[in-house]
Design goal:
Layout lengths: L1 H26 L6 E9 L10 E4 L5 E3 L5 E6 L4 E5 L6 E4 L8 E6 L3 H5 L16 H14 L4
Parallel strand pairs: 1-7
Antiparallel strand pairs: 1-4, 2-3, 2-5, 5-6
Length: about 150
Amino acid sequence: MKRSLKLLPSLLALITLSACSRKHINSKVFTYPIEVQGYVCDTKGKQPLPGATIRNKRTQKIIATNSTGFFKANAQESDVLVFTYIGFITKEISMKSLAKQDTIQVFLEEDTQILETPYITAVRNHTTKKISIFTRFWRGLKKLFNGNKK
């Protein structure tokens, strides 16, 4: 009898934990991450785009392609991946549309509107020299005595 009374609190805790965990499991749908890998290339020459960024819209995690345009990412079936590269049109791909492919190839198109828009890349500042009154006077005297020669 004493032994069963000692086990009663741990048995109650176990029952409470199992009831809470069942409620939690039933309220959420768990999905496992899917590993996606592939290459990001341009549409014209089919050249790889090193440094292209892939952003998961749900988690906001960002990865970049390596020097050969290869990437590897983990995402869930409901996620959307956003592919971007400077000078190219952004492309969004839903994980549902990939249909469990092993390796995917994403082609980005050049953005011609960006190339036609002029951009200022640098601004040159001109500085003016401040000349003291004494320097101006001295130069004036030199010109006077040298016959306006420098």
